[in-house]
Amino acid sequence: MDILTRVTSQIFVPRQREIERFAHNTDDIQRNQLQSLLQKARNTEWGKKYDFKSIRTYEDFSSRLPLQGYEDIKPYVFRMINGEKNVLWPSIVKWYAKSSGTTNDKSKFIPVTPEIKHSQYKGGFDCVALYLRSNPKSRFFSRKGLILGGSHSPSSLNQSAHCGDLSAVLIQNIPIIVNHFRVPKKRIILMDEWESKIKAIVDSTWNVDVNSLSGVPSWMLVLIKSVLEKTGKQYLTDVWPNLEVFFHGGISFEPYRDQYKTLIPSDNMHYIETYNASEGFFGIQDDPGNSSLLMMPDYGVFYEFVPLNELDSANPTILPLEQVETGKNYAMVITTCGGLWRYVIGDTVRFTSLFPHKFIISGRTKHYINAFGEELMVDNADKAISMTSRETGTKVKEYTAAPLFLLDKAKGLHQWFIEFEKMPPSIDDFAALLDKHLQELNSDYEAKRYKDISLQPLKITVSKEGTFYNWLKQKGKLGGQHKIPRLSNDRTQIEELLALNL
Fold first, then answer.
1. Architecture, CATH, for domain 116-284
2. Residues 188-194: contacts with CB within 8 Å, 24+ apart?
3. What digits encode the pLDDT tens for the residues 119-156?
């Protein structure tokens, strides 16, 4: 460890000790988080509606407040965007993280309160703290860290409010001292046009001594390949020989792991997964040898969990963190310092250990495709199919879709397997129009499709008549209660269908 890193790492020691105590006092921390949130928001409109002042126990809280989805809080969020305060949280909120995946909207806007920003920065601090604890020979602070984030802009709804990718919101407001260790410059990282942005990042960083990377695996892989193209090198370690860690999140790293190991052939390279969403920062991989994430209980988030098989029931079981079990899939429910109250975030988790609580992200509460960060939801797909069918005079009988990773794993595409009742005049035209409508309906899909940087145009394979029926029959699932899963994040289902289609 170099002198600068040795000295700076002492700042992280008290926090490392606090995190070690998660194994013993997580329950107390969580109860205190809930009481703090209720106290802070007791005079808001939401706090008065549910009489936060009289809530004394978790049982009071759980019996009084209903579960919420984005559609439930959307009217309140838009009032906040338009300048109202004391609605969901006691402050005027000027920053909103923009993401897709809602039922009816192309994008959703999640409040980024000052407290949420603080918790996100705390999560970043803890990532470094846990990394240094596991890697005492690190030279982390002797060189630069490359952060690949998104962009932000004034909201079209209100010029006094700003919205954008969460990473852009955080970079815009990042503490000044962090900029000393970070590249590229803020004006570059916040550029709106992705193709120009990637080029500018490459031009400004290829000859900098970079030793850490932070970002989404699919986009970072695009950047890495651009760096190699510019420098004419085969391996990223030929460009940045001191590279030692990649902090990644947003999508699963598994489809990209082998590609990264090929491009960064170093035994000293580490990969650390994080779970920070627009709604909050939830987990960090604290052991490089274990893919589970340590749940962070003191970030202004109170956690609850619904057994996945009960999520759609009228009265589902809802458990606080202290009552979860290992090996079961739960839909995660959060109450946060961003004004989200018993909010069903849409992710599912499975705990691998308790005290400390460690988990893996097991999926989403509904079928989806998020292989490249596109977060394509079934609602988007159904609407796009309907619009395209109407405009082409086509009738679709059944369909399913899954990601297809190309040999160059920086890119991929969506393969759609469709059984037509009435064929379109041109499959290519149908595919192009379907792709167009998906971009119109889903802003994340649109971003990944931009100039084919990360996601190629979709591909349609036409099903023979009866293939879906035969697949259901083979599974013993004929009947009105059994439906074709429309989207899948892996290829198990579509490969079975393709095999029947030969």
1. 3-Layer(aba) Sandwich (3.40)
2. 189/147, 189/148, 189/149, 190/149, 190/151, 190/152, 191/151, 192/151, 192/153, 194/447, 194/450, 194/451, 194/453
3. 999 999 999 999 999 999 999 999 999 999 877 666 66
